[in-house]
Amino acid sequence: MLQKNKNFRAHIAAENIASLQTFGYKHNSTVGSLIEESRFDKKGNNTEWFMYKHGKVKKHNTATFDDSNRATSFTHYTGSGKLKEMITATYDKAGNLIEQDWYKKDPQTINRKTIKTYDSQNNITESKEFDGKGNLKNRVEYTYYDDGSKKQTIQYSGKGKVLQLWNFDCNPVGKLQAERLKDTNKICIHYETDKDGNPIKVNEEYQGGTGLFGKTYRYITKYNKNNNLIDAAWYNLNGKLISHWSESYNADGKMTEYTIYKGGAQEILYKSIYTYDNSGNMTESILYKKSQVNSTMKYVYASALTSPGK
After folding, report:
1. How is residue 246 annotated by DSSP?
2. Which of 33, 45, 92, 221 could join 65 via S-S bond, C-beta 3.0 to 4.6 A?
3. Positive or negative, the Cα torsion across 28, 29, 35, 36?
4. In this predicted structure, which of 17-21, 25-29, 65-69 has the lowest mean pLDDT?
5. pLDDT in tens, 87-136
6. Is the dihedral of CA 134, 135, 137, 142 positive or negative?
7. What is the DSSP letter of 32?
8. Would you say 168 and 191 are in contact if contact means Cβ atoms under 8 Å apart?
9. Strand, coil or helix: what is 178?
10. Using one digit for the tens of pLDDT, what is the confidence trace for 32-68?
C-alpha cells in the first residue's frame, strides 16, 4: 500500500488522482505490461493495491479509513481472491489505537487480539495480547515520570511471570547536541534480563557531533551482573549499524570470548577464545578469522620457586 504520509495523501487528493499504475518494459518494446496499481479515495487514502504478473492479479490488498483518515481495516488476498489475512483497528475519541484484531483466512474468526489503554495524557499504560480463544498471552505495563518521560516498562507472560523489565533513568543531553538527534534528546539506562534471568544493564547515549564535520552516533553498551562490558555497538542516526563487538566471561570474571563483527552486519569477522587453568592463569588463546583458525598461542607457567632445604 502507498499510504506514506499526510503530504502524499494531500497531493493525491488535490490532484484528484484515482489510481497510479506501474508498467514494465522489455528491451526496446514500446508496449509495457501492468505490474502494480494503487487506487485512492477522494481524500487521497490508498484503498486498494494490486500486483500483476503476466496480466493476472497475484496479490490484492484493501484498506478502509475513518473520517480522520485513520486506517480501520487492512485485508490481504491471494491472486484468486482468497483471504490470507485481515486486521481491524479501533480508536478512542483522542485518536489512540485501543484494539486490533487479526484474522487468518476466515473473516469471522479472530486469530489474535490486542487491547491498549491510555492515561489522561494519552500515554499508553497497558497492552494486552490474547490468542484466538481469548486466553491472555502477554501483558505490558507502562509508567511515566511527571514530565511524561518513561519511568518503567514491565512485560508479563499470560500467567503473570515477569519476562522483561526496563527501568528508564534519563538525563538530558546538551541543547546543541539534542538538536542534531532525530529520535531522542535523552541519555538512558534501562535493564533487561538474560536467558538465565540475570539483569543486563543497557546504556544508550549519543557521542560525537564536535567539529565542523563532526557526526553524532548512537552508542549502545550492555553490562552483565558483575558490571563487565559484554556488548558494544555504534549506529548512525538513520539506525545503520557501524561497528559491533562483544565479550563473554566465566564465573570467575575471566574473559572467555572476544568477538568483532563485520561492519554493518552481524557476521563474525574475528573471534578470540581464551581458556584458563584452575589457578585462573590463561593457558591458551585461539584467534579465528571468520570460522577458520588464524593463530593459536599457548601459555606455560614455571613452577613457583621454593626456598632451599624445602
Report:
1. E
2. 45
3. positive
4. 25-29
5. 999 999 999 999 999 999 898 999 999 999 999 999 999 999 999 999 99
6. positive
7. -
8. no
9. helix
10. 899 999 999 999 999 999 999 988 999 999 999 999 9
Which residues, other chains included, contact 41 with Cβ-Cβ below 8 Å and sequence gap of 6+? 47, 65
Q: Which DSSP string do the residues of 91-160 spell out, in sequence order?
A: E-TT--EEEEEEESS-TTSEEEEEEEEE-TTS-EEEEEEEETTS-EEEEEEEEE-TTS-EEEEEEEETTS
Dist. CA 217–CA 174, nearest whole Å: 15
In sequence order, what are the residues at sequence separation of 6 or more whose Cβ sits closer than 8 angstroms to the Cβ of residue 157?
137, 138, 163
Each residue of 99-111: b (16+ CB within 10 Å) or e?
eebebeeeeeebe
Burial 2-23 (b: 16+ CB within 10 A, else e): ebeeeeebeebbeeeeeeeeee
Grid cell digits, residue 195:
536467558
> Do residues 72 and 85 make contact, with C-beta atoms less than 8 angstroms apart?
no
Whole-number Cα distances in Å, 268 to 4, 251, 254: 36, 24, 21
The amino acid sitting at 31 is V
Record the cell numbers describing residue 305, joined without a space. Answer: 620457586
First to last CA, the chain: 85
**Other CB atoms within 10 A of residue 275 CB:** 14
Residue with cell 538538536: 179
